[in-house]
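Bumping with the actual sequence this time:
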Amino acid sequence: MLASSQQSKKASFRAKENSVCPVCDEIHQKENMFQGGGRLIAGKLTQDLRRLYEKNKKFGRINPNDYVISVCPKCLYATLQKDWSSISAPEIAKLKNSAPQRREFLEKILGPLDFKEDRNIVLGAGSYLLAVDCYQNRAPTCAPTPKKAVCAIRAAWYFDDLNTEYPGMSFDKVRDILYQRAATWYGITLEIMQSGSEPIDSAAGMLGPDTDNNWGFDGVVYLNAYLTMKFKDQMGDTPEKKLDLLVRAKRMLARLYGSGKSSKSKPSVIIDMSKELYEEYGKVIEEMGGEK
């Protein structure tokens, strides 16, 4: 009876089948989140399309993003589950050779971590940092750019939470760097969508950027504009470059909200947020001298 009661309060379980790391052959069991049972209590949607979750009295802190990235506890190879095994020999060689640097990089920011333990806020943050690093070593065939964008913005959310929980540890600096990288990669993703240089369709189900609502292409357009505005000073080193970045992002944003009418594929929430952002763009661009 006691075991059953404890089990009901668990947020996750270990898969029965073994996971074998394609990079170093380490055998481990992937951790998955239990579904249902009133575990998730959805809160508000933030300006950067993050779904907040309220703390559950019974289960404590629960975040579905904790379990999305598969991580090898030995070599720290990290990726979305769909990309876990679809990896080429040259990619394996790169990831194997970079394993020591990956561990050193992670420990500098978060200290030593053990991915055999149950996921928590720190391991969640670490999993996305590692995924960003590993996708740097992946070939264009797995569409690494949009996946880096999504992993970077989710990592930024984790470091925002860590900064709230552990202030004064420079997690806010890591957060802002991740946001800026996400902004860059979202901009490149828009270019890729037009050029077809990466198979964006393989990332379609996770452009979200969160797990509760996949905003897809609209989310990419909106986040490119939101993050460009937020980090324009860091992304453009001259007034001319800043203005050019803003003008391009504004033109893409205009396509998103269009006539301002919502539909099934474009819920009113993203239309309203896009319209507000578009109006902000107009004011800022005008103050900077207007579109050339």
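The tokens above came from a reply further down the thread. The chain has a mean pLDDT of 90.
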